[in-house]
Every structure is written in structure tokens, then in C-alpha cells.
Specification:
Elements (H helix, E strand, L loop, with lengths): L1 H19 L1 H15 L6 H15 L2 H13 L4 H36 L1
């Protein structure tokens, strides 16, 4: 799947960034861990928010990553699509175009599972 290949490439360069910018990436990782853990919002809810934001900001890497993580956290197809619908409302036409990217990832990952 194209999105998975892109994320593999992304992961390679994230590792390189960690080597070149160890403090920045260590702190980013700590921030990420603090944000995604269960609190007032569950980790699943946070991943659904991330899906919506990824679509709204038009980040293909983010879309692939957060759709996959939302599924891993137990989000249903319907929940993911609803998060995408909020992104469309907030992001307009460009978000609609990237919503199709999210659909591709969702279809591929749910067909595999």
C-alpha cells in the first residue's frame, strides 16, 4: 500500500532526524507520549482528533499514521469517517480531497484486517 510505503520512508528519516537532532526529537517524543496517553480524553478519542486534523492540514503521512493508530485503538470505521466529516466541515474543499486519502488508507487497512 502506498501510504505504508510512504510511512516507512518517513520512519527512516525520523530515525535520521533523531540522530541529527537528538534533543529536539527526544522532547518531541516525550510531548507525543504525554499527549496521547489516556486522560480526560481517551487515547482513541485523541487519535480520532488527530485523524481530523491530519485531513484538515492535508498531511498524507499524518493521515496514514493516525488512521492506522485509530484502528489499533479500537476506533470503528464509522467513528473515523465521522472524524473525517468534521475535518471536511472545517477544511472545506481541500479537506475533501484529502478525505479521499483517508478513505484509501481506511479501506486498505480494514480489508487487510
Amino acid at each position: 500500500m502506498e501510504a505504508q510505503k510512504n510511512n516507512e520512508g518517513l520512519n527512516t528519516y525520523l530515525e535520521k532526524l533523531a540522530q541529527e537532532l537528538p534533543e529536539v526529537m527526544k522532547n518531541f517524543h516525550q510531548l507525543h507520549e504525554a499527549v496521547v496517553s489516556d486522560a480526560a480524553l481517551s487515547a482513541k478519542q485523541k487519535e480520532l482528533i488527530a485523524v481530523g486534523i491530519a485531513v484538515a492540514i492535508r498531511c498524507s503521512y499524518c493521515i496514514a499514521n493516525h488512521v492506522a493508530k485509530a484502528l489499533q485503538m479500537g476506533a470503528s470505521r464509522k467513528e473515523i469517517l465521522e472524524a473525517i466529516s468534521v475535518a471536511i466541515m472545517m477544511g472545506g474543499g481541500p479537506a475533501v480531497a484529502y478525505a479521499t486519502e483517508a478513505m484509501k488508507v481506511l479501506d486498505a487497512l480494514t480489508a487487510e484486517g
